[in-house]
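Show me any protein, keeping tokens residue-aligned.
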Amino acid sequence: MRTYPFRRSSKAEGKTFGRPSALTEAQRATVMDQLKSGVAIAQIAREMHTSRQTIMRVRESMSLMEPDFTGIGPDGVPYAMTDWSDRRKSRDA
């Protein structure tokens, strides 16, 4: 437990622990833009000189950060415009 005081003082100074990130924040933003525009994960990984798994982690973090409440459904209708009342009536009939 001799390291505990050292770790506490280091954190107070603002030092970070653990493995460094494979991508900088600017690179992550670039990856997010490319993913949104439909570029393949493997192609992005090659361009960024990193693994596909790293790109998939960025994609996963995007979905956690930005929930899609105004997207287009499988039937081509925006989510906010879907009228569920007629579907409920057909169940009761």
Summary: The chain has one domain: 17-92.
